Amino acid sequence: MPLNPADAAFADSLAAALGPGVVAPAEPRYLEEPRRRVTGIGAFVARPRTTQEVAAIVAACAQRHVGIVPWGGGTGLVLGQVLPAGPPPLILSLERMAAIRGLWPEEAVMIAEAGCILADVHRAAGAAGRAFPLTLASQGSARIGGLLSTNAGGVNVLRYGNARDLVLGIEAVLPDGAVMHGLTRLRKDNTGYDLRHLLIGAEGTLGVITAAALRLHPVPADTAAALVVVPGPAAALDLLALAQERTGGRVEACELIGEAGWAFLAETMPLYRLPLPAAPAWSVLVEVAGSTGATGGAALEAVLAEGAERGLLSDGILAASQARRDALWQFREAIPEANRRIGAVSSHDIALPLSRIAEFIDRAPAEVARIGAFRINVFGHLGDGNLHWNVFPPKGVAAADVRVHAPAVQRAVHDLVHAMGGTISAEHGIGRLKVEDLERYGDPARLAAMRAVKRALDPAGIMNPGAVLRA
After folding, report:
1. Quick one: 322 and 372 in the same domain?
2. Which ranges of the chain have pLDDT less than 50?
3. Which CATH number is 201's domain given?
4. Which of 19, 148, 414, 461 is the most buried (most CB within 10 A)?
5. Calpha distance 304→318 (Å, rounded)
């Protein structure tokens, strides 16, 4: 049975039930995605202030068979927050639900509503002497609900895990409007199916996360970072293994940066001061936390000295101060902006077994060279195997002029990733952009189980229609 549109009559009835200020015409920002390649549809947005209002909205949509597209901070890169075609849905924004409901420093737990911006969660945790280690470039606008719905990654996955590893419990509204009260602060709770992990990463297709009990961590006594020149990806992995061994697993982040990242920054931001005088073919940004026995700077300096003796690095900058560390991370975070200014033909959020990363980086350029002449920018989270392997037009050529090759490029890259035991979506999710890829590369038994879960929880298909699985 097809979905009904969220038209003016439905919006009026919902507004009458919820009172003024909750339902309104959808502003353009609710219909845009960061890369501005697709515009969504939807004439109305609901902005509830409480979980009870979310439940009432979802129940009304279920009764009237109206699709719902949840909207967090709008930072997703796989079209999970925009519906480009079909019956116009109701856009459900959680931005007004931005309260910290409670914080227990002695338990290292915080309960935050889904609309909390990640940077605000960081500040609240820091004020209590704790840290919430989920860190990514969009933390000034990304919200907790969207981050959990996509099981976000970021630069600290190496030590602390993905978003799901930082959650003890969630509160969510299920597709029939029922509220699942799961805000446990317990570390151990073996009372049946763990539905928390079913809803985290489901991209709003099985329900709406309204709040979460977040696992906090101690604030490291100090941290140090270094940007070093390495012979290649294999040496970078050996350096990471050495750092993990010598620091007892205190490596906070390890980022691989290819030469094209430096070149793109010079091309698009010529006034930007690069941290090294010459652009190396390969470099690594590594950060280490200190311990009671050694400062981060001392631990990292010892690692780099041993790494140099082994031929794993040839040059670099050790930044022990906060200001110098910030400058190195600003350099790393400027690379995606340079990418956007160049304009990608095809972007790939992939992950591979660590032992096969160097082989993939060596083999993949030949696969796309069969399609045409392109520039390739490789960077990403080396420690957890997640690469952003992105393909760009030759210098002087607009991406739009060669984007006709994007499907072939993506297929070639993803075929190789799959053949090497990797995944075509490491941290961005499936959304609507990668549904066909999931069907092509996904395990049939797993896909059948996913469809069965979707049918059981959302038989009408109202929750984020077309995302993750075909309607």
Report:
1. no
2. none
3. 3.30.465.10
4. 148
5. 9
